[in-house]
Amino acid sequence: MKRVRASFFPPIALDPESKSPLYRQLYDWFRGAILNGQLRPGQRLPSTRGLAAELKVSRIPVLGAFEQLHAEGYLQTFLGSGTVVTRSIPDDLARPRKGSPSPRTPLKGQRKLSRSGAQMRQPAPQVWLNHLGAFRVSLPALDHFPVGIWSKLVARHARWPAKELLAYANPMGYMPLREAIAEYIGTVRAVRCDPAQVMVVTGSQQGLQLSARVLLDPGDAVWMEEPGYPGAHQSLTTFGGRLFPVPLDSAGLNVEHAIRSCPRARAVYVTPSHQYPMGTTLSAARRMRLLDWASRSGAWVIEDDYDSEFRFGARPFASLQGLDHDARVIYIGTFSKVLFPSLRIGYVVVPTDLVPAFAAARDAADIFSSTLYQLALTDFIREGHFARHIRRMRLLYMERRNALLEAVRDRIGSRLELVSAEAGMHLVALLPPGMDDMRVAQAAAQCGIAAMPLSSCCLRRPARGGLVLGYGGCDQKQIQDGVKKLAGILRRVIT
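RE: above sequence
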């Protein structure tokens, strides 16, 4: 440590091992000393040359720190008087207060938040998200993603990008990508739209947030599948939505129950093609009833089509949006679950008359998504890599699904009731009645198993707990080892 003599000036400690550069350490010390009263307004400072000599450092970091302090108004220089602490700092701010807390100490009860901000809480520790592999939910087969092809496509556009592609872009997204998305979902998902209605977003989570921001007023009721996607719980309540849980059965969301119990809802969140997490499909009759209710009541339908590509033994079901004749459906999709999560690219199909409002909301949020990845993804789709990857992953996930079903039946048997195994990258295993799924999930996490409790998807305590087991991101060995550990945990909990 290097110090200035205390008799000459308050001691300054510099740490040559710190990652922070010397000029920043000096700047932080002087600013702190001025604000906490160690250096008083009008107090003269040593010259930069003298201070550098005392500290045995180059004059350059001292000059840099003083220039920054001058620029921010903490120091003044007078001809013949040298550099002094500015006299314009209010005396009450420069006077140290007795018992004043450290700047790092939170001041409880002294910070006023908005109503929505005050309602936000750090979620309880989700220990089932601490591990990759068995049985992390929503994790695709990262080991089978064509990294080589993707890297070449990214390098193609990163090597010599056009100037306009480095500048600000349209909040709706890169038009060639929007055209590719419109063509894809029109063919595969029967979505009716043109590219002008497609907005590229930073994953489906942002699509949900934009929908809530544009469509909901504080206190508006929103029908929510029960159990349902926890990310939708967060997004819809952030902007004041009041969630109304709607039960499920084998035909999906119970629309008639929702109409009887909460007829004046402003919107409904639904995953009709592959309900999250239970895996049911919304029946044709309920689809038509839901759209009729939305049209008659002026409500909005937020359709989250998060992994409909992966249906085993049958073609994916057509979208709810394709049946909508009154432009009440906002359709949300994502590439993060079908390619890789850190891609952070999703899309929203917006009714034509809502495009200006959604574009303005997106511009206010983060302006636009990374253009480089949009360029690479456009080529990935246009050149056929995306379709080939989907076909390979559908077969792979079916193999992994079958391996998980067989392992559970062999090692655990009737202690788990398996449901929702016809599509996607996860299935639900219901626990014996009365068993606490949170307790099981915590025990599994201690063994390195990511078993998501079904209750974390519920607004109300479920009648029966369960585990949501993802198989997309784990190979057959991980599945076998994971089920073996899970069987041991269940034996301990049951006994």
